[in-house]
Backbone:
C-alpha cells in the first residue's frame, strides 16, 4: 500500500478524498492534517472525524490540527458553497480526539522519519505544506511526492474569474510550494475537474441506489455543494479532492499529464491566486506535472466502488 498523509480543509469532496485514503486497500493513510479553508476550523475537524466514523475507522488514524489562517492574509470561508461541509451531520465532542502535535510538526517529523517514502495529498489551501518547508528546508526533499488540488490550467477560476479557491485563499503559500523543489503533481480545477470529475444526475442516482451507509453519507455530504454548483451552471457535484487522491492511488486513471512551469500570482488585484501554467516558454523550467485528462468513467467507478464498501460506522 502507498503510505500517505492527507492535508485537508474537510468539507464535501475532502470527505470523499479521505474515504479513498481510508478504504482503498492500496492506501496506507498515516495521518490527516487539518488546514484553514472551506468552513470554520472546528467544523472541519468534526467533518474529518465524521468521515473516519463513516468509514468505520475512528481512532485508527491520527488527526493533527494545523494552521488556522493563511500565511499573511485573513481566512476566507467557502461556507456559501459547502454549508457546514457535512450535510448537518453531528458527532459527540468526546469522539474528536486530536493529536497534541501541530500538523506542521507532524508533516516535518513523519517525512524526516521516512525520507523518500511518504506521499502528501494536499486538498486545501497550501498553508501547512508551505510552513513545513519554512520550518524544515529538507521537507520537500523528504516527501516522495506531493499531489496538489489547486489552480486552473489557464482556464476559469471558481472564486474569482482568475483564481481557484485553494490558491486564492493562500497565494503566498501556493507560490512558496511551487518554489520549494517538491516532486509535485497538480490536479487543476479547470479544465480537468470542471469537465471530467462532475457527477450528474444519472451518476448520483447510481450512487444513491447502492443503499450503503457510505452512499447515504456521500449524498448527505454533497447536498449543499450540489445545490450551489447547479446555481452556477455546473450540472452535478464536483470532485477535485477525491480526484487528486485517485491520481496518487490509481495512476492508471490518468490519461495525459505534462510538465509545466507553475507559478502563482500574489500581487494582482483581479488576479490574486491566479496560477500561471506554462510550457515551452523560454526561461521557465518545468517544476510540476499537471494532469490534463483522466478516465472520467474509471474515476466514477472508483468512487462508486469505495462507496459500495460495507462498513459499520464506528
Ligand atoms: C477546492 O476548494 C474547495 O472548496 C474544495 O474542497 C476543493 O479543494 C476547489 O476549488
Ligand atoms: Ca478541499
Residues:
Amino acid at each position: 500500500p502507498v503510505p500517505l498523509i492527507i492535508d485537508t480543509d474537510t468539507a464535501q469532496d475532502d470527505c470523499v478524498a479521505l474515504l479513498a485514503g481510508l478504504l482503498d486497500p492500496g492506501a496506507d493513510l498515516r495521518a490527516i492534517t487539518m488546514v484553514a479553508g472551506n468552513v470554520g476550523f472546528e467544523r472541519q475537524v468534526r467533518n474529518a472525524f465524521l468521515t473516519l466514523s463513516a468509514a468505520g475507522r475512528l481512532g485508527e488514524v491520527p488527526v493533527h490540527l494545523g494552521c488556522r489562517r493563511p500565511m499573511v492574509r485573513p481566512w476566507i470561508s467557502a461556507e456559501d458553497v459547502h454549508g457546514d461541509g457535512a450535510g448537518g451531520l453531528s458527532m459527540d465532542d468526546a469522539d474528536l480526539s486530536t493529536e497534541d502535535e501541530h500538523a506542521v510538526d507532524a508533516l516535518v517529523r513523519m517525512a524526516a522519519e521516512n525520507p523518500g517514502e511518504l506521499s502528501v495529498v494536499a486538498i486545501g489551501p497550501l498553508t501547512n505544506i508551505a510552513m513545513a518547508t519554512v520550518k524544515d528546508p529538507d521537507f520537500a526533499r523528504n516527501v516522495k511526492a506531493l499531489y496538489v488540488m489547486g489552480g486552473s490550467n489557464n482556464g476559469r477560476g471558481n472564486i474569482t474569474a482568475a483564481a481557484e479557491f485553494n490558491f486564492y485563499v493562500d497565494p503566498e503559500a501556493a507560490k512558496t510550494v511551487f518554489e520549494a523543489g517538491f516532486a509535485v503533481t497538480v490536479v487543476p480545477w479547470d479544465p480537468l475537474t470542471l469537465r471530467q470529475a462532475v457527477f450528474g444526475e444519472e451518476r448520483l442516482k447510481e450512487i444513491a441506489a447502492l443503499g450503503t451507509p457510505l452512499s447515504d453519507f456521500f449524498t448527505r455530504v454533497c447536498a449543499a455543494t450540489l445545490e450551489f454548483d447547479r446555481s452556477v451552471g455546473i450540472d452535478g457535484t464536483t470532485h477535485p479532492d477525491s480526484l487528486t487522491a485517485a491520481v496518487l492511488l490509481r495512476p492508471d486513471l490518468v490519461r495525459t499529464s505534462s510538465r509545466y512551469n507553475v507559478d502563482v500570482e500574489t500581487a494582482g488585484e483581479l488576479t490574486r491566486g491566479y496560477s500561471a501554467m506554462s510550457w515551452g516558454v523560454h526561461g521557465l523550467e518545468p517544476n510540476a506535472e499537471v494532469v490534463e485528462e483522466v478516465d472520467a468513467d474509471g474515476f466514477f467507478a472508483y468512487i462508486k466502488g469505495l462507496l459500495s464498501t460495507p462498513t459499520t460506522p464506528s
User: Anything to note?
Assistant: Residues 178 and 195 are 25 Å apart (CA to CA). The pocket of calcium ion (ligand 2) is lined by residues 9, 14, 37-38, 123-124, 241 (CB under 6 Å). The chain has a mean pLDDT of 96.
